[in-house]
Amino acid sequence: MKIEEFPGPADQMCNLGKHHWSISRLFELSKDFEVMEVPLDHINLYSTYEKLTLRNMVMHMKAIDRADLSFPIILDEDGELMDGRHRLMKALYTGQKAIRVVRFDRNPPPCKVDD
């Protein structure tokens, strides 16, 4: 049975409320930010995501397995996760105590705003 690959950054969007950002744009805007080591227990781990089929879950499991913890996760100005949920899940799953983080002091203008 074929399991789809999780889309790469060029095809992903961050959605926080009605605001949407291109993940590749977030990478570009945050590339020169100071990288911090943040304890995992200081990060909001209570976000929920859409209902997943078993096939979708396997797709995410494969993405977690491939996640590269050398790349920091990206947080918004309020500390909410903009990018890096697979890296964050890998850090949790493998028993890491902290993760590399960059954070926007002020969120960039979104690429799209829902009505």
What does this structure look like?
- With 115 residues, the protein is α+β, with helices and mostly antiparallel strands.
- The chain has a domain at 34-105: Conserved hypothetical protein from pyrococcus furiosus pfu- 392566-001, ParB domain.
- 26% of the residues lie in helices and 23% in strands.
- It has helices spanning 23-30, 54-66, 85-93, and strands at residues 13-16, 19-22, 36-39, 73-75, 81-83, 98-103, 112-113.
- The strands form two sheets. Strands 3-6-4-5 form a four-stranded mixed beta sheet, with helices on both faces. A three-stranded antiparallel beta sheet has the order 1-2-7.
- Strand 4 and strand 5 form a beta hairpin.
- The longest helix is centred in the middle third of the chain and has 13 residues, at 54-66.
End-to-end gap: 39 Å
Helix content: 25-40%
- What's the story with the biggest beta sheet? 4 strands, mixed
CATH architecture title of the domain at 34-105: Alpha-Beta Complex
Q: Mean pLDDT score, rounded?
A: 91
What is the top-level CATH class of the domain at 34-105? Answer: Alpha Beta
In terms of per-residue confidence, which ranges show pLDDT below 50 for 5 or more consecutive residues? Answer: none
State the helix count: 3
- Morphology call: globular
Looking at CATH, which topology of the domain at 34-105 would you report? Conserved hypothetical protein from pyrococcus furiosus pfu- 392566-001, ParB domain
Fraction in beta strands: 15-25%
